[in-house]
């Protein structure tokens, strides 16, 4: 998303677009390596712009300019110098936005995004999915387009089983059933669960559907508990525990 800091048209005097992009890619790589050095087990890259890039949104003029392939290419430039061993623990998060219990691109069909998204040579994908209307459609896309070998690393699909935008707490059984359904289309060795998005991505988020950020916090922990329990149930059923 930071690539959008450079003017869409023309060039800045004394700082070419290519120099900017090269600096940006280097700094992103530094950022990722710094996070690992500080003790992170995994580093996930937010790719919320991916789905938004497939939209033509008058509030975001760049969205009409078919920039998805460019974003994918930039992220691969970041990932390229990183070894497959390290990339196992570098992932991509996709969602249609999640702040203030609202979305920016939920109306975009995942079919427009996923075939390109899995071209990024990352080791895992954290995908908003529990709030999708047609989940099977998305499970199938993940099965079709995720790769067992992305330049030496297998791509694990962490499917969203918890909706942070809805205060209703999912049961462990619902989580289990979603994973069982997904396992019909995604190889179980490359399947995992996640929350659709962060529970309160910005500090100014008032969580309107929840009543308040404090209530949302309590609910978040109940939801995470359900995810962990339901995932363990599915693992056992699938024989991957
Ligand atoms: Zn998100």
CATH architecture identity: Alpha-Beta Barrel
Regarding CATH, which class? Alpha Beta
Q: Largest sheet, described in full?
A: 5 strands, parallel
As residue ranges, the low-confidence spans are none
Strand content: 5-15%
Number of helices: 8
The overall pLDDT, averaged over residues, is: 94
* Terminus-to-terminus distance: 37 Å
Assign the structural class, choosing from mainly alpha, mainly beta, alpha/beta, alpha+beta, or little secondary structure: alpha/beta
Helix percentage: 40-55%
Shape: globular
The number of distinct structural domains comes to 1
Number of strands: 5
Index terms:
241 residues; alpha/beta; five-stranded parallel beta sheet; 8 helices; 10% strand; globular
Describe this structure in words.
The protein is α/β, with parallel strands linked by helices and 241 residues long. The chain has eight helices and five strands, in the order αβαααβαβαβαβα. It has a five-stranded parallel β-sheet with strand order 1-2-3-4-5. The longest helix is centred in the last third of the chain and has 26 residues, at 213-238. 35% of the residues are buried. The model has no long low-confidence stretch (mean pLDDT 94). The structure holds zinc ion. Zinc ion binds at residues 48, 93, 95, 98, 197-198.
